[in-house]
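Hi support team,

I've been running sequence recovery on a batch of backbones for a student project. Most finish fine, but this one hangs at about 90% for roughly twenty minutes before it completes. I'm not sure whether the input is malformed or the queue is just slow. I've pasted the structure tokens below so you can try to reproduce it. Let me know if you need the job ID as well.

Thanks,
M.K.
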């Protein structure tokens, strides 16, 4: 049975929702007051984000290719591996899934957000990314390079032609998990490695609109970096892939 574009988008929505629920969930779990996992650290965060992507891949991989990331969709389209007609619908589904996933994190950890109301930066970090050292162009470089690694490796794996849909699902669940964990552990400490506009923009929007006690600013003046940086990284990865292969 042929899978329609609408069905593909539904699975992109569901996969991205679970990705953000589990990914932002670990950020909340290790950061918010009175959580039993508070202080668990970066290794737990990096591994859990990798596993969060794995869960999204299991959900959407067989149906949509499991892009789960506008930078992946744009990069694959630029490389000629994905139809441009599908890019906008996929991106809308990804942003919507990210927003719903972030809202679920807030509802799940509501009591702990209330207990952390005197730490607005901690609250924000459980939704979206903020740099360890603010330096806009170097922060931009961090997001661009991290996403370049992500998209270029996805494209390299996809050359095998083992799946009809090209995306993170074409890597298989275990390799993509290792890839995300590796990016987090090696390149993630500078900006929190959004490497995905839907991972950052949608939860940031949720932070802005939800009635979170003591939440402070949503830092929209920084938000262009984890949005444009990953798109640029994906585009460069596509260009290099076409040049090399």
């Amino acid at each position: 049975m042929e899978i329609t574009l609408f069905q593909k988008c539904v699975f992109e929505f569901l996969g991205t929702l679970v990705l953000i629920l589990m990914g932002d969930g670990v950020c909340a779990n290790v950061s918010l007051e009175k959580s039993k996992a508070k202080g668990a650290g970066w290794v737990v965060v990096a591994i859990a984000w990798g596993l969060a992507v794995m869960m999204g891949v299991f959900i959407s991989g067989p149906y949509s290719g499991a892009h789960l990331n506008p930078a992946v969709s744009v990069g694959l389209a630029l490389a000629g591996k994905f139809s441009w007609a599908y890019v906008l619908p996929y991106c809308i589904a990804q942003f919507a899934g990210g927003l719903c996933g972030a809202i679920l994190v807030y509802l799940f950890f509501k009591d702990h957000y209330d207990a952390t109301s005197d730490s607005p930066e901690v609250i924000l970090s459980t939704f979206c990314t903020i740099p360890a050292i603010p330096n806009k162009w170097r922060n931009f470089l961090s997001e661009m390079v991290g996403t370049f690694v992500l998209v270029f490796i996805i494209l390299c794996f996809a050359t095998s032609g083992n799946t009809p849909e090209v995306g993170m699902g074409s890597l298989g669940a275990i390799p993509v998990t290792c890839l995300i964990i590796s990016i987090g552990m090696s390149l993630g400490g500078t900006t929190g490695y959004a490497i995905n506009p839907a991972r950052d923009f949608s939860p940031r929007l949720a932070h802005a609109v939800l009635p979170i006690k003591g939440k402070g600013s949503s830092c929209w003046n920084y938000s262009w970096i984890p949005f444009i940086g990953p798109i640029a990284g994906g585009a460069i990865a596509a260009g290099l892939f076409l040049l090399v292969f």
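--
Follow-up from support: It reproduced on our side and the slowdown came from queue contention, not your input. The mean pLDDT is 94. No action needed from you.
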